[in-house]
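Following the same procedure, sequence and fold were stored together, as reproduced here.

>
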Amino acid sequence: MRAVQVVTLDGPAAVRVGEVPDPDPGDGGVLIEVHAAGVTFPDVLLTRGLYQYRPDPPFVPGSEVAGVVRYAPPGSGLSVGDRVAAFPGTGGFAELVATTPSQVFALPAEVPFAEGAGIPMNYLTVHFGLLRRGRLQAGETVLVHGAAGGVGTAAVQLAKALGARVVAVVSSDEKGRVAREAGADDVVPAAGFLGAVKELTGGRGVDLVVDPVGGDRSLPDRFTDSLRSLATEGRLLVIGFTGGEIPTVKVNRLLLNNIAVVGVGWGAFFTPRPGFIAEQWAELLPFLRDGVLRPPLAPVRPLERAAEVLAEMDERRAAGKLVLSVR
């Protein structure tokens, strides 16, 4: 089969497309014909050996896919020919991927494969963050950093679907357009976002900050200003560090304003709880069928251009969810 391989740990440029053996689902595994594969920030980290999971090269990256079941074990609830989305963790940048049934989900007929491939990691992470970790309530105000990226657009859409007001933080007009199309009520530039947020909320601040960016060399005060943007009893969700640095917190700020910094480690949470992500998917299904949750896609490119797409994510140039077409 055709697949993308990381051949050395030297970043996106060190990936190659070629022929590799078909994966073996083994006892109890599911084999999926991949039609589209979502590209995530952990895929970029994997190309440098910087993710928590560090496979030895050569290996096939790709944590989320959409396609059709080729083989399913008895009792899995899946059948050959089912349209599915899946979260294999790795191996998704290929014509076939094997994974466990608990990480395979029915994909409604209303959802194209390219959109389906952009759902598992970002939307399930954001669902876990907003509801379980952030305790979001309808009527609250949510600030979303990196609001035109995969996690950001998922956060904008799901927060809106749950009844929140959403303020999107972006770094360009094009990214602002993507955030508005995702449903943001207000869009503010990353430079000077704190003042804009205070003005939009009448000085009160926001209830929840969704932060997949972390420390940002171009905006060194971004994380501190996020804390300053919180209303009393506000929560800041730490989701990732696409900005390239891990910020630190002066905890007196938490005490003085009765605010909280909350870690969102979706993978660490669901791994020992195999049924959890199926429950999440069931809660998202009505929104998927109704078209409320639809990943705004960047231009979809073929598998052969994986290095280019990974570099685009690495350099934070993407406006919309990055997806590779496989079939």
User: Anything to note?
Assistant: The chain has two domains: 2-118+297-325, 121-267. Residues 120-133 form the longest helix (14 residues). The two ends are 12 Å apart (CA to CA).
